[in-house]
Amino acid sequence: MSSQLSHIRFSNIEGDDDIYQVLALQQSNLATNVTTETAASQGFVTVQHDFALLKQMNEAIPQVIAKDGDRLAGYALVMPPSFQDLVPVLKPMFLLFDNLDFGGKKVFEYQYYVMGQICVAEGYRGCGIFDGLYHQHRALFSDKFDFVVTEIATRNTRSIRAHQRVGFQSIYTFQDETDHWDIVVWNWE
Fold first, then answer.
1. DSSP H helical segments within 61-169, as ranges?
2. How many C-alpha atoms does 6 have within 13 Å on its Cβ side?
3. Pick the CATH number of 3-187 from 3.40.630.30, 1.25.40.10, 3.40.640.10, 3.40.50.11690
């Protein structure tokens, strides 16, 4: 890890304050809350969670965060397939995953989870936090899961490039009523 990150602590959500900080960072980076220019240059997040759901997600699987002292620098949320009915907007994504082939099998035949969302706070971008969050995921979850999968709006070019840099590979692209999407997998097998 770079010396730039020496003051950053990668850990899990430890309490309600961390959840509130994740929700605040998420709010400020929602596609509906950023300008077109910001979305193009800095990226954006699409799905909005609430406190109860995020707390439930954290109780099911520890959610990964990066902190600079008491300040949240970024987060990378784990969304297990069992949560697909709790976030109705994501149900079509999970159904699509179940029908996709990867490595000669259907995705649902693997032990996997979905990157529920990843976001780095302004002022911390470009210094390795994104990669650090994913490396924390691999350290925590690679012995339990075969891979992590997610979908990224193709217009979110910063996110596409960052996921490729970490090691994700595209396995499928599609268009729906909201956007053009790229489904990517980081294979740990």
1. 91-99, 129-141, 157-166
2. 3
3. 3.40.630.30
Nearest to 86 by CA among 118, 47, 112: 47
pTM of the complete model beyond 0.85: yes
Tokens of 94: 């999970």
Query: From CA 158, how far away is CA 163, in angstroms rounded?
Result: 9
Task: Please name the helix (run of DSSP H) or strand (run of DSSP E) that holds residue 53, with its range, or none.
Answer: helix 51-60
Residues 109-134 have a mean pLDDT of 93
Owner of token pair 């596409």: 160
Cβ atoms within 10 Å, residue 79: 27
Crossing angle for the helix pair 51-60 and 16-29, to the nearest 10 degrees: 120
